[in-house]
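Weekly modeling sync, notes
Attendees: AB, CL, MP (scribe)

Item 1: holo prediction request
CL wants a bound-state model with adenosine-5'-diphosphate before deciding which constructs to order. AB pointed out that an apo prediction alone won't tell us much about the pocket. Agreed to run with the ligand included and paste results into these notes for async review.

Input as submitted:
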Amino acid sequence: MAVLFVILPVLGVSLYYSLGKIVYDSIDSSLLSRAKALATLVLSDNDETEFSFSDEIMWEYNSPKSKSFFQIRRFDGTTLEKSTSLRDGELFFPGNEQQTSFKSVMINGAPARLIDFHVPDENASKGKEHGLIIQCAEDIQDQITLLKNYRLILSLSILSILIISASGGFIIAKKALTPVKEISETIDRISESNLSERITSRHIPEELRLLASSFNLTFDRLERSFNRQRQFTADASHELRTPLSVILIQSEIMLRKERTPEEYKNALAAITEASKMMSEIVRKLLTLARLGADKVDLKTENIHLADIINKAVKLLTSFAEQHGIRINVSADEHAVIRGEQETLLELFSNLIDNAIKYNVPQGKVYIFMKKEDGVAVTEIRDTGIGIPDEDLDKVFDRFYRVDKSRSKLRGGSGLGLSICNAIVKLYGGRIEIKSRLGTGTTVSVFLKEGRDNNMHI
Ligand SMILES: Nc1ncnc2c1ncn2[C@@H]1O[C@H](COP(=O)(O)OP(=O)(O)O)[C@@H](O)[C@H]1O
Ligand SMILES: [Mg+2]
């Protein structure tokens, strides 16, 4: 619109001026040829100047209503001859002009165009004042009216084009922006209150469908992640509440009256147990938070995977012995991966811990690790209770336990496998679980083998 508002008036003005110039040029050239024609009819002989104007020529000038005029003067201004059409009037005479020139003047109250045509005397010795000035004029009222009308039509057209395009543009823009406004209002509503609302308007044009569906997909993801977060917070609080209430109840009971040393001892043991449980949950939550951060800061180095596995087994040996479980390790000494001690130890100790915890008395745990096409594959197989098929894809969820009552007895929080999953993902690897109820479970971990692997973190 701004461009139109500049261009159209400029175009109008230049169109008007070029037409004006064409009109004036044609009047001027016709005046010039008239003056020249008159000049040929002037016979100058010494001091006598005669005119051989035929009636035919004079008819054009001498009718009282004629719109053509002439006046012939000497250089000093004295009039030698003039047309009857001038009646009592005279043509404007500037006096001191040196050469042929054109002017716009008024004759008998009407606008006219005038030429002062200089005809010097052939006999130059007589001086300049003996030359003639042939003045020719023509009424240009018609041409001026034409130009005036042209100007009026031009300005009206430009004005109406501007008005039409401005209002049209406004209406079209408004119409085009209405769905955008609707979408943005819906988005405002969604982010304010309920994440479950979606952009559904039927007025959305084709071009904006893609945008709307992208927004909807984003909201889907946001809603899911919000719900997961909410669930996670609820679960975390729930998990922490149990040991907390054990601590509270035990302490309150003990404080109610004087107790025997034996009773204090038992209560403190229960409190210690509950505190350990809480501290374990908090530790795991912190690990998860660290692993889930946008940018995980790992202190990576080249690590012999066998060392880590042996370390993890060593950490859990006494726990295994308590349950009479034997651990059998067979690991490739040469498998090296790029990684961080702490997270890898966390990964394998969680898996081995599960293999012991969910085993049968006198059960066995087999750990195999080998290199396979640039990947270090670790298998942790137990002879335990197994996992029902319908729970297999949920065990990686946070706080998910197959059998809550049984697992709590064994001190699990349901965070172990989700930590393992997060760690393996961080290393760009993969974790798989296979199980048969009553026979045992096999967890396989695939990690990129090699000393200089760039991890995608
Ligand atoms: N080796 C296994 N054998 C049988 N069940 C298992 C095994 N590993 C994990 N599970 C099941 O998966 C659930 C989730 O495991 P995990 O995330 O490590 O939590 P936790 O060990 O704290 O219970 C466990 O509660 C258990 O029911
Ligand atoms: Mg576990």
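Recorded for review: DSSP finds nine helices and 14 strands in the chain.
Action items: CL to compare against the apo run; MP to circulate these notes.
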